[in-house]
Amino acid sequence: MPAISPERMQDRYDAILDAAKQAFAEKGFEGASIADIARIAKISDGLVYRYFKSKRELLYGVLQKFYARILIDLEHEVFKHDKFPARLEALIKRHIGVFVADTDLCRLFIAEVRTSSDYEGSAIQDLNRRYTSVLIRIVREAVGNGEVKPDTNAKLLRDVLFGAIEHLAWRHVNGRGQLRAAQTARELTAMLTSGICID
Amino acid sequence: MPAISPERMQDRYDAILDAAKQAFAEKGFEGASIADIARIAKISDGLVYRYFKSKRELLYGVLQKFYARILIDLEHEVFKHDKFPARLEALIKRHIGVFVADTDLCRLFIAEVRTSSDYEGSAIQDLNRRYTSVLIRIVREAVGNGEVKPDTNAKLLRDVLFGAIEHLAWRHVNGRGQLRAAQTARELTAMLTSGICID
Amino acid sequence: MPAISPERMQDRYDAILDAAKQAFAEKGFEGASIADIARIAKISDGLVYRYFKSKRELLYGVLQKFYARILIDLEHEVFKHDKFPARLEALIKRHIGVFVADTDLCRLFIAEVRTSSDYEGSAIQDLNRRYTSVLIRIVREAVGNGEVKPDTNAKLLRDVLFGAIEHLAWRHVNGRGQLRAAQTARELTAMLTSGICID
Amino acid sequence: MPAISPERMQDRYDAILDAAKQAFAEKGFEGASIADIARIAKISDGLVYRYFKSKRELLYGVLQKFYARILIDLEHEVFKHDKFPARLEALIKRHIGVFVADTDLCRLFIAEVRTSSDYEGSAIQDLNRRYTSVLIRIVREAVGNGEVKPDTNAKLLRDVLFGAIEHLAWRHVNGRGQLRAAQTARELTAMLTSGICID
DNA sequence: GATGAATGAGCCTTCATTCAT
DNA sequence: TATGAATGAAGGCTCATTCAT
Do B170 and A120 touch (CB under 8 A)? Predict the structure, then answer.
């Protein structure tokens, strides 16, 4: 019999995660302290460690929640459409939209997580893979129905697409430059579907 | 009358830079201490500061030297060729080659510099821009002679290309996965020049 | 439920303060390290910072405790007497006594605090003012009842008195020379009450 | 045979001393570096050590020059007068004047030299003694011709006088408060010659 | 369950002084 | 004589994590 109810535990868990999200967003991973997070969540420092094994786990928790959310959104947006180009454009637009709407979390992922040594094999990497595999799926389907060249390297395309968006979004993440999701999505879709060369 | 010859000073400068490169590569920027670097360079801690204003300057020095080298290499490789696809493929191949040959320095740049707040406006950013602008140049020339569609967004292509390579190279940087420079260059060139869709 | 009792916290606080007093007295402010203080107090370095915000705060804490003590003593000794000359002599004697008994703390105040840039407006300056204002009070009372000339500049007298004692005590503070509190108090009282000139 | 002429050496010596005076006045003893001083004197760091054994010697040199100057001034001003009260008032006025005119050097002496452990027995202390002994001399003469009480403790008076002036000048030294030399000299003279009590 | 006191490792930088050139 | 490169010691403070209460 737990000393507090499961509901209470879940509330706490969520509160800590929200507090961490806020603190990390404001100060970055290194800059935010456990004490900051505990204060925001209105609990003691020590209690954080009943719910999360380490500060890093907390970061992972925040990003997992984030990925879970954007994964559902992405699938929802992409599978509204049937044709491959429309799906691709929707995917690009949506992904850029994530950078715009959740700049701080994107920065967190790029700067603090993906570059870290324990990213490989982590739950975050798994979620990231699931997120990016939406592209793989629509490519495979498009190959199946003749929309896309059968020899297309889907994994290469995945790296191209997500690498490209991250790169162009980085300026936005750093506070400079505009990010026009719709227009960029259109251009990038055209570039990838038709190529840049004159036949 | 200087206390030591200019040659000796240059040697020292280079020795410190090499030591820093090694230390940063092994332990990362935060992980490497000035004491580590001084020990490797076989000098005293204090002397480091006669040649470099701060630890960060040292990092920048290391990366500047790196960029100066790969910039020359890139131009050399790219402008061997005349046709756009060949140039593009050479650029991709060469850039992937940098990740393969200088994994640690690439990691340093991606993880410790580009994500840092003082990257914007730094000399490193300038060098990076010069490096990536090689692509802009070959695209412009190719547009000029009808090889590439005139409405091609060169800057978008730049983000696509370098973002893509960074993304796909990251696995290699992190010690896993293979990176076949020649083959990947060929595939990526094809993808970007012709697009992935069937007309 | 606090992790430790308030009594324990107070004990710690006092222990740190005593350790700091000892370390500062032995080595001066700059010379004493936080590690020294922590070692004397038998705690970890970090814990010092839970009780005091900085090394300087610690110095101030030591001197505040000191001033609080000597202020009470001074008032007690001075107001034993009713007549002005007796009060003045008691004040002088007591103040000299402080230099004799707490040489190290006096040195600390004179050498490390009063000359520092953040002394002005500090809590220590306030305590010092309260301490020296005992003289102002007895002068004002003595003017009121006709013992002292009505045009006496009390603040000037304050500077004269405390400046004089500090000056003559400085030799003692520095380990040389004798300081005969009673005799010096008598002579100085006579000098200030009657002047040195023959009418 | 010296490699440079004695005149040149003396010029250098003076130039270094002036540079040190300026640097110390601007940044304090700790704050000014040998490099600062060498730069101001337009010589190399190392050469400073041909003329002065250590940074501290340099400080002492600066203050010796200072004391030599104010000693002559003081004697000149004081012995203009014949009567004791006039001499005393002149001495006080002049000494306050030094604080006003050479605030930085006074601060240097008070904060950095007199409180240091090697002050005792130093050449500076000797000069200080000679400076303050002007008072002893006029008191002795005044005792001799019946102007001052024969049992006056001249050394105590010395401490009182110089301690008092230093104390009241300290506020000025720290940039606050006014220092009216003439008026303060008058009041202080009256206080010390006649006392503050009504007979 | 909850608290928060306690731990302790870790490091850049300055600068007086020396001495090879 | 003059230079200035080279030395190397020294310490305040933060904070993730643990565990006594």
Answer: no
